[in-house]
């Protein structure tokens, strides 16, 4: 089975009565079976996203081959997406390796430059039917080593979003409406009014980053107001590390390392299943 781009995968999700797709950050190859298990349990298509750092660590070809192979053998429609990337060369590398979706993040640039670069990425992606996500506004928190401080957060304006989508023709747009990347100390407060207005102004799928700290109620409301891709990363990582700490602590050095990882993967599957249910 070949990989799906975001637009095609969203259609599969809608046919199976999901309102949105979760996009889950894979941090290491060992975590991969847990993702597919969750997709099988929920009869959901699967969107896996990779940071540029993880792609470099694992190698693009290995990721594409492993994910294609699992997608075919498990019969799970799957999209492989490059998360936040502002380096056009790195995006080309991912497209050439077979990624089916990419994100160009020019949110730190003036809107004109963000539009120009996003258009270049779309020109690179279209011939391969690769979907393109862009970002407008500044989402707070830390992502793959990049930090946006609280005072630098800029919510996405409705007018800018409308112009951006019109001038780029991007497939999906990440917006800043109150969520923060990384680990939360409290709960995020989504600006639902702003979200609804941006949905009506743009008419394309909107993306929620920093899904970890959003309450279940807020998440359900967001996917009813135009969010069709929800990024979840930190929560799986936290569960995986917490469970590994326990098992490694208790185990013996001559135990198979596999035995330490299985409980961690079970915890990751549980997080994914719980999140996927919210998108119905
Ligand atoms: Zn993000």
Automatic annotation (TrEMBL):
<feature type="binding site">
    <location>
        <begin position="210"/>
        <end position="212"/>
    </location>
    <ligand>
        <name>dihydroxyacetone phosphate</name>
    </ligand>
</feature>
<keyword id="KW-0479">Metal-binding</keyword>
<feature type="binding site">
    <location>
        <position position="84"/>
    </location>
    <ligand>
        <name>Zn(2+) 1</name>
    </ligand>
</feature>
<keyword id="KW-0862">Zinc</keyword>
<dbReference type="GO" id="GO:0016832">
    <property type="term" value="F:aldehyde-lyase activity"/>
</dbReference>
<dbReference type="InterPro" id="IPR013785">
    <property type="entry name" value="Aldolase_TIM"/>
</dbReference>
<feature type="binding site">
    <location>
        <position position="182"/>
    </location>
    <ligand>
        <name>dihydroxyacetone phosphate</name>
    </ligand>
</feature>
<dbReference type="InterPro" id="IPR000771">
    <property type="entry name" value="FBA_II"/>
</dbReference>
<dbReference type="GO" id="GO:0008270">
    <property type="term" value="F:zinc ion binding"/>
</dbReference>
<feature type="binding site">
    <location>
        <position position="105"/>
    </location>
    <ligand>
        <name>Zn(2+) 2</name>
    </ligand>
</feature>
<feature type="binding site">
    <location>
        <position position="181"/>
    </location>
    <ligand>
        <name>Zn(2+) 1</name>
    </ligand>
</feature>
<feature type="active site" description="Proton donor">
    <location>
        <position position="83"/>
    </location>
</feature>
<protein>
    <submittedName>
        <fullName>Class II fructose-bisphosphate aldolase</fullName>
    </submittedName>
</protein>
<dbReference type="GO" id="GO:0005975">
    <property type="term" value="P:carbohydrate metabolic process"/>
</dbReference>
<dbReference type="InterPro" id="IPR050246">
    <property type="entry name" value="Class_II_FBP_aldolase"/>
</dbReference>
<feature type="binding site">
    <location>
        <begin position="231"/>
        <end position="234"/>
    </location>
    <ligand>
        <name>dihydroxyacetone phosphate</name>
    </ligand>
</feature>
<feature type="binding site">
    <location>
        <position position="135"/>
    </location>
    <ligand>
        <name>Zn(2+) 2</name>
    </ligand>
</feature>
<dbReference type="Pfam" id="PF01116">
    <property type="entry name" value="F_bP_aldolase"/>
</dbReference>
<feature type="binding site">
    <location>
        <position position="209"/>
    </location>
    <ligand>
        <name>Zn(2+) 1</name>
    </ligand>
</feature>
């Amino acid at each position: 089975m070949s990989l799906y781009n975001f637009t095609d995968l969203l259609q599969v999700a809608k046919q199976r009565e999901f309102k949105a797709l979760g996009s889950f950050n894979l941090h290491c190859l060992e975590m991969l079976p847990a993702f597919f298990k969750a997709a099988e349990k929920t009869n959901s298509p699967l969107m896996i996203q990779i940071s540029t750092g993880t792609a470099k660590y694992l190698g693009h070809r290995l990721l594409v081959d492993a994910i294609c192979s699992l997608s075919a053998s498990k019969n799970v429609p799957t999209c492989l997406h490059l998360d936040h990337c502002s380096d056009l060369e790195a995006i080309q590398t991912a497209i050439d390796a077979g990624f089916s979706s990419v994100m160009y993040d020019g949110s730190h640039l003036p809107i004109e430059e963000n539009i120009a670069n996003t258009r270049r990425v779309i020109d690179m992606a279209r011939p391969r039917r690769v979907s393109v996500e862009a970002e407008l506004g500044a989402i707070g928190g830390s992502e793959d080593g990049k930090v946006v401080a609280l005072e630098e957060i800029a919510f996405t304006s409705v007018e800018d979003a409308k112009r951006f989508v019109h001038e780029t023709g991007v497939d999906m747009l990440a917006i800043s409406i109150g969520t923060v990347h990384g680990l939360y100390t409290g709960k995020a407060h989504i600006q639902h009014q702003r979200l609804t207005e941006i949905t009506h102004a743009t008419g394309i799928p909107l993306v929620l980053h920093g899904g970890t700290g959003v309450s279940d109620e807020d998440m359900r409301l967001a996917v009813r107001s135009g969010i069709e891709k929800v990024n979840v990363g930190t929560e799986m990582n936290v569960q995986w590390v917490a469970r590994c700490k326990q098992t490694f602590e208790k185990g013996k050095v001559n135990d198979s390392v596999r035995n330490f990882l299985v409980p961690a993967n079970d915890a990751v599957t549980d997080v994914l299943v719980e999140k996927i249910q919210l998108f119905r």
